[in-house]
Amino acid sequence: MFISHKNFFFVVFLFVFLFNSIVAASYLPASINLIDNIALQTQKVEGVKFDKNYFINVIDAAKFFNLNYIWEPFTNTIEITDNNINLKMRLNSDFILVNNKIQISKNKLILNNGAIYLPLEFLIYLKNNIISISGNNVYYKKNALYKSDDIAEAILKSGKIKLPEIQTQQRLKNYQIKTIIIDPGHGGGDIGAVGYSKKTFEKDITLAVSLKLKNILEKILPNVKILLTRTTDELLYLEERSQFANKNRGDLFVSIHCNAGPLNVRGFETFYFSLTEDDETERTVRLLENNEKYQYRKDKKNINVLDFITTDLAQINHINESIELANLVQARLSEQIQSANRGARKARFFVLKDTFMPAVLIELGFLTNELEEKLLTNDAYQNKLAEAIANAISDFKKKMELIKYSAFSN
Question: How many other CB atoms are there within 10 angstroms of residue 244's CB atom?
């Protein structure tokens, strides 16, 4: 039976709607009992029950236990903090980061009727005054909830305390991309791809374009700090590049590269980090850029496997933003230069994996293609590349700041 495109999308929409309705209907309203273990006083708050497990509304948990939280609507990620404890998780994910250490939970963060609900057992990670949790009952020591000094008690009793969710909204309303990291690929003894003429090295092209990109960004985004991982022909290990970005609290990471392949292949492409790859092309490019000799300064035997899992999770939290940036870069390059648009693609690049921010790796073109090598070494063409990437970054900045402001303005 033939189904038109319009009918097909309607069927898919109807299926998703019905599936979500069934899932939502399976969440049963429930009261969560917060019990003072000494005074035996109980306060009831909103909650839901699902498959014999209980969940508390994040807003209620933040108010009652004096927690701070940030909800990232674009990535469906929440970060909850209490003094020295930092808990980060993604909607419907089994993984939790507790002080950057990975934990696995049988229950997940859920979204029900527009509200975010936290599994009760997650409170154990956040509050040392929680004695036990049994069913929908949370037993706690009241005296450990807040500071016991007279000033704090007076403020709490007056009710004139600034609620955590108000602080969260204000922080997101003021969200800005303030620091952009530009990473010229390769350098020093790591020459990267070699051109068709055997006289052109990738490390030189990436640095030239990156310096031009920095100059343009400083003009169109004067209030943004633009930093380069290298400004000269020097060797940097992959770990040093990501460490530089994280240390400088980058909000965006853009790694500049040139491609290599069969002589007849040409075009530009932008990669974002993913644990999976589309096809053999992505695997080939990844192997070229993840040059094992220049990955890590320290012996690979001394690298904790858990570090890789944790950083994978951290970059996955930014995957939607990275995809958005990759698509914007491809669109702007298509407008600016005459070459093949090879699309936004995914691959497991180490330099992207270890950055705790939206990150992309741009392949400007194929040095192994005779025509494209001549273009990539041309100063005017390099300016066009830099302008296109700068415009894409500017587009991304405006869009992300608008999304994060709008999400908490209603």
Answer: 19
Tens of each residue's pLDDT in the chain, 410 residues: 444 544 544 544 455 444 444 444 477 888 888 887 666 678 888 788 887 888 888 888 888 877 887 776 656 778 888 767 778 888 777 777 887 777 777 788 888 877 888 888 788 777 666 777 888 888 877 644 433 333 334 433 444 333 333 333 444 445 689 999 999 999 999 999 999 999 999 999 999 999 999 999 999 999 999 999 999 999 998 888 988 998 999 999 999 999 998 899 999 999 988 765 554 444 444 444 444 444 444 443 343 333 433 444 455 567 888 899 999 999 999 999 989 999 998 877 776 777 888 999 999 999 999 999 999 999 999 999 999 999 999 999 998 888 755 544 44
Q: Are 186 and 259 in contact (CB under 8 A)?
A: no
**Closest to 275 (Cα-Cα) out of 267, 283, 284:** 283
Residues ≥6 apart with Cβ < 8 Å to 372: 266, 339, 365, 366
Both tokens assigned to 86 = 């930092």
| Residues 6+ away with beta carbon under 8 Å from 379 | none
Query: How many angstroms separate the CA atoms of 374 and 382, rounded?
Result: 11
Does this model's pTM top 0.85? no
Q: Say which residues have a Cβ less than 8 Å from residue 58's Cβ, sequence separation at least 6.
A: 69, 71, 78, 80, 115, 116, 117, 118
Pairing of β 42-50 and β 53-57: antiparallel
> What CATH architecture is 179-406?
3-Layer(aba) Sandwich (3.40)
Q: Domain boundaries in the chain? A: 25-173, 179-406
What is the separation, in whole angstroms, between the first and last Cα of the chain?
A: 46
Rounded CA-CA distance 6/1 in Å is: 15
**CATH 3.90.1210.10 applies to domain 25-173:** no
Contacts of 288 (CB under 8 A, 6+ apart): 193, 259, 260
- Give the DSSP H or E segment for 394: helix 379-406
Token readout for 356 is: 């705790």
Residue carrying structure tokens 């001549």: 374
